[in-house]
Design goal:
Length: 563
Amino acid sequence: MNGCNRARWWRTGLLAVWLWGGYVAAFPQDPLEPPDQKNEAKKDEAKKDQPLPSPRRDSPKESKFESTIEANLPQVPPSILPDTVNGIDLACALRLAGVENPEILIARQRVVGAEAMRLAAFAQMLPNLNVGINYDAHTGPVQQSDGNILKVNREALYLGLGSGAIAAGTVNIPGVLWTGNPGGIVFDILAARQTVRVKQFDSLAVRNQIFLQVANGYMELLRAEGRRAVAMKNRDDAHVIARLTAANAAKGQRRDADANRAAAEYADRINYAVDAENQMLVASARLAALINVPPSIQLHGHDGWVVPTPIVPEPIPMRELLLIAINRRPELEARRAAIRVATNELRKAQILPFSPNVWGGLSSGTFGGGSNIASGLGFNESRFGNFAPRVDVDAVLYWTAQNMGLGNFAQIRFARSERRISELEFVRDLNMVRNDVARAYAGIHARFAQIKIAQDSVASAQKAYEEDYKRIITTDTGLPIELINSFRLLAQGRNNYLDAVVNYDESQFAMYVALGQPPASLLAREMPKDIVPPPELAPLLPGCTRTNGSGACSACNTCSPKN
């Protein structure tokens, strides 16, 4: 009995030592000292920065099992994007639009046409110059003023300033001829000057609006590229969830419904990625149309994901912004000039009955000729001779009441109506400008608040997703539906953050244009890379490449670094 008791106690001691060693291996801290809470907090922070754990796949059997799981999941289709892309930044897009956009070029040509009409209006102050020659020959009877019939064979020749000198009359086409209404010409010149200003401000308005469309088109390209980056990240996360739930369902640890739900979510994320590529192609084509490049060129933004520096200082109240816009918007300046044009046209119509019409001419040349009658009176000169210098001066002034004054009255009423229309067009555009400023003002403040809200939402969703994922991996209490719900919130939060940033950009550009200035390519603060990965650089579009030392674009050779 004593030997048996000693053996039993020996076995009990070995078992206690083995259990104690296992406890020490599992919990290596000293039982006599309290745990260091600061070190534990540091360990927790370090764990947060570590990537999420992945299911272990060590043995060949596990690898074969994973291959089977992957084969049963939805498959990713090939990308629809072209293999080669051309990079472009906002500054280059604005330069190309200013050089190549047809709407801007058309507006500029209208300015050229208005300047030509202004020159023509000034030219009315100068006379016409006529140089010519005329030959007159008559054979047969003529009647004198007293009724006597004469048989005359005569010839005449005129050469010099003017033309149309026949018989005893003056030169019908004077060499220096000025004709017109002085009052009408003066107001035509004043109206033409204001018409040029109308076209110039209209051209600036078209430029600003096209540049705004280019800026928005560029931001939409960035939005599309950001959506694809977010869709790719969401697709990868959905793939991890689908693979995990499918593996657990195959092992009998989860329900098949959970695996099917995760697979459906993964399929949706694949579809979102394909749709994001479609949006990239569409956004690139729209921007290409604005800068007049072929849509077959796939454009790629080089600026990355950024938030513009506030171009308009935020402390400026709405009332002051409205005053700035009213004084600087080219649309309103064009309407003011149009009112002045209509006013000059009205004054012209009012002064026409009281301003004389003037017809004045000066001719100087050589004239000569002869006739059989002159030769019969004893002249020894030849029938075609007697050439000598000749000068003619003609001046005519007369006042006109068109259609007994009724035509002038109709012109006055029409001109007054045109001026009233111009005034109403100014009011219409004034309301448009106020609306643009108000919308941009509200958009800037709302989008700025949404950026912070979306950022906090992404952080909370990311934390919930990580906690649910770790619980699924490490314990049996985690539910796949909770993980999928957390993932959906995270995916939506990423898209919301991207939209808030891009919408803020567009609101800044809209405010800048609403105040009468073209969009600026003033960009700052990058978007967090953990939300949307930065885009990869691509070869620049040829129009964006600058030559060495000259600072000019190789496409148009007109841009400079100051632009």
